Amino acid sequence: MRRFGIIVWFLFCCFTAWSQPATLKGVVVESNSKGEIEPIAGALVYWLGQTKPAVTDSLGVFYIPIVANKNSLVVQAMGFKTDTILVNNKNTLRVMMISKRNFEDAIVSYERKSTEVSFIDPWKVTIMNEKELFKAACCNLSESFETNPSVDVAFNDALTGSKQIQMLGLAGQYTQMSVEQLPGIRGIASNYGLNYIPGTWINAIQVSKGTGSVVNGFESISGQINVELHKPTTAEKIYFNAYGSEGGRYEANLVLAQQPTKRFSHALFLHASTYSLRMDQNKDGYLDNPLGEQINALYRVLYDTKTGFILNASMQYVKDKKWGGEFNYEEAKRFDTAMPLYGTLVDAERLNGTLK
């Protein structure tokens, strides 16, 4: 009885081994730009005339049953030329794929709109680029929102010409103003600070309505406005801009940028403006616009070590002078008792720097 069981077990093993088809083992590889051999994962391997393929694993190895009267093996992989191999050795196989990345370079061009809204950023931020500033005669930041319905800029008073941002019906002190994510126009400079950033210095303006993140501060109750200036690496080497109007307003801007080395770059931004024409069109005896002059200079330095450390520093000097009041009021004679005229004078001198 024991001999009979051994014979049955031996016959069962022989039948199982005979019933299982033989398997071909192989590996699919490629040669990279450095001449190193790397496996190709996800390649399809099948016998010619059949549709059931084997797929290579992460090491490029595949196993496929050997089919009688089939010796042509097809290998396909994304980005490589399809190859048909004549298999003579039924044990192991090594397939070297040839890349078909020999097509010409494709250039994808896209014309950016003047105002964009990112669909990736979870915060709804409206980005205004330079094209939006070209729609109006923008000479400074306060005049850059004339074509944007989200932000209103209103005069606080006509004598001094101070302007204020209004968002969602709230006054300007509830709107956070930042320059490249750093505290910009705030405090005592909020009344005239919008005139301290010329339009030719601006690269983009990011506007976010509603309560924003407290990461950048707590003032963003009605919204946040961030101004991005031209970087020393992206600004034009020499740029000159001039503006004049029949109302007696004249401005000139000069930008000088240089990159002596791959790591160091710097830029100088200069601005000068004047408003000298006296106007009283409504004949009330007061100036329609305050007179004044401004000198503005900004120096930026960018140092990039290409190892993850970036130094960004800037220094700005502003000399702003405005006077208004009655039509014949003269700022030089403001202390003269022989000239009993009403007038106002704003003489601001500001020096600030940033370091990131």
List keywords for this structure.
single chain, 356 residues, mainly beta, Immunoglobulin-like, Ferric Hydroxamate Uptake Protein, Chain A, domain 1, 3 domains, six-stranded mixed beta sheet, six-stranded antiparallel beta sheet, 2 helices, 22 strands, 6% helix, 41% strand, elongated
- Structure annotation, total helices: 2
- What's the N-to-C terminus distance? 91 Å
Structural class: mainly beta
How would a crystallographer describe the biggest sheet? 6 strands, mixed
Strands across the major sheet, in which order? 9-10-15-16-13-14
Average pLDDT, to the nearest integer?
Answer: 81
The poorly predicted ranges are: 14-20
* Fraction of residues in β-strands: 35-45%
- Beta strands, count: 22
Radius of gyration: 37 Å
Task: Please indicate the count of domains.
Answer: 3
Secondary-structure element order, as H and E?
HEEEEEEEEEEHEEEEEEEEEEEE
> Helical amount among residues, as a percent range?
under 10%
Gross morphology: elongated
Describe this structure in words.
The chain is mainly β. It has three domains: 21-96, Immunoglobulin-like (Sandwich), CATH 2.60.40; 112-229, Ferric Hydroxamate Uptake Protein, Chain A, domain 1, CATH 2.170.130; 231-356. It contains two helices and 22 strands. It has helices at residues 2-19, 130-133; strands at residues 23-31, 37-39, 44-47, 54-55, 61-65, 72-76, 83-86, 92-96, 115-117, 126-129, 152-155, 163-166, 175-179, 182-183, 202-209, 223-229, 238-244, 249-258, 264-275, 291-304, 310-325, 343-355. It has a six-stranded mixed beta sheet. The chain has a six-stranded antiparallel beta sheet with strand order 17-18-19-20-21-22, with no helix packed on it. Strands 1, 2, 5 and 8 form a four-stranded mixed beta sheet that branches. The N and C termini lie far apart (91 Å).
